[in-house]
Amino acid sequence: MSPSDHPPSDPSEPPPAAPPPLPAVRVLYDVETIAARNRALATEIAAIEPQRLLVVCVLKGSFVFAADLIRALHAAGVAPEVEFMILSSYRTSTVSTGRVQILRDVESEVRGRDVLLIDDILESGRTLAFAKDLLAARGAARVLTCVLLEKPGKRAVKIDADFLGFRCPDLFVVGYGMDIAHAFRQLPFVGVVEHSETE
C-alpha cells in the first residue's frame, strides 16, 4: 500500500495525548566528582594486584559506571576481561520476596580467577550477595564488590562493598545509567528526582 492509499485521518478524532512531563532532577554528584572518584577507585583496585581479573557488570543500572571504571582501570594498568549479569528479585505484586532470579549469566570460566562485581546501588544487598556467593561457589579465587552508591541502613543481608564510590542519602537517584521508568539513564551525573508540592 502506497502512502496515498492510506485513508485520511478523521479530523474529529482528538490528537494523541502528550506524555506527562518528566520531573526535575537536582544534581547530587556532578561529572567531575564522579570522574575523580572513578580514578581513585581504579587506583585502589589496582593496589590489590588482581590476578586474571574478570569484571562482572550487574545490569542494567551499572553500565555507565562500569564502562567508566573499566577505562579508569586501564589507565591504572589493569586489563580485565568483562562479563555481564542480569539479576531480578522475584516479586509478588510490588513486594520483593527476597529470592533472586538469573536473567543473564556470565559465559566465562571464573574458577581460579579474581572477580570484581560492579553494581550501581547497594541497598538491601540481596542481589549482590547472591551474585557473590554464586561466583564463589563456581571456584573464583576472590570475589570483590564495587558499587557506585551505598544507602546506609537499608541492608537486608550482611554484605559490604569492598570498593565504594559514595555513601548516598536515602533519596530516589537517577542518571549515570540509573533510571525511573526507563528515563534519565543518559544523564552524565547522579541526580535526585524533585517532586512537586502537589505530588
How would the global form be characterised?
globular
Largest sheet: 6 strands, mixed
Total individual domains? 1
CATH fold field value: Rossmann fold
Number of strands: 9
List the secondary-structure elements in sequence, H or E.
EHEHEEEHEEEE
Strand order of the largest sheet: 4-3-2-5-6-7
Structural class: alpha/beta
Helix content: 10-25%
The CATH class: Alpha Beta
The CATH architecture would be 3-Layer(aba) Sandwich
Distance between the termini: 47 Å
Mean pLDDT, all residues = 89
Number of H- or I-type helical stretches: 3
Computed over alpha carbons, the radius of gyration is: 21 Å
- Kindly estimate the percentage of residues that lie in beta strands according to DSSP: 25-35%
Are there runs of 5+ residues with pLDDT below 50, and where?
A: none
GO molecular function, one term: nucleotide binding
Subcellular location: Cytoplasm
Family: Belongs to the purine/pyrimidine phosphoribosyltransferase family.
Organism: Blastochloris sulfoviridis
